[in-house]
Design a protein that fits this description.
mainly alpha
């Protein structure tokens, strides 16, 4: 099942506009459009004895396809004509149509519900102090990663969060312990080889 989660609330006007856009993407195709696409498909495929009454066959297919949007019907029916030599069963059309339309329906459900899931933070996360922020900005400037025009880090979405002073101290202590252990292992290895 496809599901969309929003990380924050949407402004009501934005949510309404997004719902309207998704509803447009889900608007059912007209019967005339479906018949035209079925006619095109029929002219490009070989019949597997779809019956003598083509109008009856088309009416049955239209009844099954009428809930799908025009662009999805066009893509699936034309794709079927290119990839299959024979007239498809309705199941051969419905499966790919459902796969195409499922994300749109999931997005509509999420937008209509209006619920959002705040992003998770680590339970031990500590908000940076103004000094931490100033230090981070200075570090970014020193390495050419600060955009003076925008007042933000360059490609800020791709940069990892800056650790706090306490986290940096903890990481430095762990690094010192690692170095001591590595030096000790190297000395033991050298002593064992008679160096």
């Amino acid at each position: 099942m496809i599901r969309y989660d929003f990380a924050g609330p949407l402004a009501e006007a934005d949510r309404a506009a997004a719902i309207e856009a998704v509803e447009t993407m889900l608007a059912p195709a007209s019967e005339a459009f479906i018949v035209a696409e079925l006619g095109r498909l029929r002219s490009l495929t070989v019949s597997r004895d779809i019956g003598q009454d083509l109008a009856l066959v088309f009416a049955a297919y239209v009844g099954e396809l009428r809930e799908y949007p025009a662009d999805a019907i066009r893509d699936v029916l034309r794709g079927s004509a290119r990839s299959n030599k024979f007239w498809p069963s309705i199941a051969e059309l419905i499966d790919p149509l459902d796969r195409l339309v499922r994300p749109r329906k999931a997005l509509r459900r999420a937008l209509v519900s209006g619920k959002y899931q705040p992003p998770e933070t680590s339970p031990d996360w500590i908000a940076p102090t103004p000094e931490d922020i100033a230090e981070a900005e200075a570090l970014l400037r020193a390495h050419g990663l600060w955009d003076a025009e925008t007042g933000r880090p360059k490609e800020h979405r791709n940069l990892p969060p800056m650790p706090s002073a306490a986290e940096r101290e903890r990481m430095a202590a762990e690094l010192d312990q690692f170095r001591e252990r590595w030096v000790s292992l190297a000395q033991d290895a050298n002593a064992g080889h008679g160096h």
